[in-house]
Amino acid sequence: MSKGRSKRVSLKDIANKLGVSTALVSYVLNGQEKEKRVGAEIVIKIRQALEEMNYVPNHIARSLRNGKTQTIGLIVTDIANPFFSSMARCIEDEAGKKGYTVIIGSSDENCNKSRRLVDTMLNRQVDGFIIVPADGCYDYATLIVNEGFPLVMVDRYIPELSTNYVVLDNFGASYDAVNYLISRGYKKIGMVAYKTNLIHMKERIRGYTEAVKNAGLGKRIWEIRYDHQKDDIKKMTQQFQDKNNVKNVDALFFATNTLTMAGLYRVNELKLQVPEEVAVIGFDGNEAFDFYSAPLTYVKQPGNEMGKEAIRILVEQIEGSGKISHISLAHQLILRNSC
Amino acid sequence: MSKGRSKRVSLKDIANKLGVSTALVSYVLNGQEKEKRVGAEIVIKIRQALEEMNYVPNHIARSLRNGKTQTIGLIVTDIANPFFSSMARCIEDEAGKKGYTVIIGSSDENCNKSRRLVDTMLNRQVDGFIIVPADGCYDYATLIVNEGFPLVMVDRYIPELSTNYVVLDNFGASYDAVNYLISRGYKKIGMVAYKTNLIHMKERIRGYTEAVKNAGLGKRIWEIRYDHQKDDIKKMTQQFQDKNNVKNVDALFFATNTLTMAGLYRVNELKLQVPEEVAVIGFDGNEAFDFYSAPLTYVKQPGNEMGKEAIRILVEQIEGSGKISHISLAHQLILRNSC
DNA sequence: CATATTTGCTTTATCGATTCAGCAAGACAT
DNA sequence: ATGTCTTGCTGAATCGATAAAGCAAATATG
Question: What are residue A153's DSSP bridge partners?
Answer without folding.
Answer: A131, A165
